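dude i think i finally got it to work??
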Amino acid sequence: MAEIRPIRAWRYNTTLAQSIDSLTSPLFDVVSAKQRKVLYQNRNNSIHISVPLGDHPFEEAAQRLTAWKQNGVIVQDRLPGIYVYYQYFKLAGSAKEFCRKGFIAHVRAYDWKENEIMRHENTMPKAVNDRAELLDKLQMHVSPTHGLYTDETHQLEVYMDEAINNPIYETEDYQGVRDVLAVIHDAKVIRQFMELIATKKIILADGHHRYEGSLTYRKQQTLANPNHTGNEGYNFHLMYFTNTEADDLRILPTHRLISGIQGFNEDDILEKFNEDFIIKPVEGADTINEVIMGKKWAFGLLFKDHAVKVRLKPESFHKMKWAFPDVVKQLDLTVMHYFIIEKILGIPGKNQTTSDKVEFDRSFSDCLTKVIKSEVQMAIITQEISIEEVKAVCASGYTMPQKSTYFYPKVICGFLFSSIKEDEFQTPAYSGFQ
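look at this
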């Protein structure tokens, strides 16, 4: 089961932290070019070490980080702690305010085969290698990945609720989400967190590339260290943990944008759907995401001048030739990638992850706009998947199609950083956590 440890976080000094909202940034894989341009203008913004610039970006980020430490831009907390992180948010079309409750700690970086931390998506080697190299140069985790544990009794929430009443930071981020950070230093309470998670397996919700980057780096260091004990800083990873049984865990759909198909013709494309799909025109393209809601294997197709709802015929399901277990084959996204993207659009499954013909966008309105402006040839609108589906796929040992989940909201970078340098990672004797 999963081992976690409290962390002695590095955080912005008290003066800078008064403007913490100017120092935070989106995660490396969601920050837009426009956002980067603005954030880079602040020399102390966390973007400089999470998505560094320059001819030798990782080396320059390491130099900047060293200067930040020496000049007191960031300071390490004296005591180890569990950092409580709440995100308050609303969803489009709803007045209800949600609150996703979680906490940040170190977790041992387990190999996938150990089945203590389970993935549901595959990774791309280049992104993994980039994250491993950045970790090597910085010796610092700059943002937490997102892990899920299951606790029907909600044992930890009472301690988190108490801690959040005395926040360290409170700010509104780029998503319009209110982010609040607090810390628990009480050793007895921290041990309850450690003991509970020690009985759990963790599902990796978000941050597969950063986590696998930690695995890559840990393996490199283990081989290079003849005195390896398993307790060195490189054995651990920074993670934000939330409970799957909470009401405020939200997974948003990620739609597919199609472009660059040679000889693309809407009539020909729709004709190909007749074999395996029930086809129904939709008058209002702006409502197609609502039309398909709750219907298994149903998708919205957006073309420049019209929209169509398609739904796989149940009797066609057996035609799927991909060698996946039924729990994976039954997913809407698997059906979409096989029957629509491979069989109808002609992009083989093995090429879909790297194909420049398939883009991903979680914004329905963006998809609609891009189709109308002919920036793409068509959009495939899909539905969100459930946490139960995520659990089932993880338990099977298989993964979902790429970009299957968008856990919302995203955590932000800049509230805290966590060092894996030995003199900064190891907790002092007076903390009781050696």
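Residues 208-224 form the longest helix (17 residues).
im so relieved honestly
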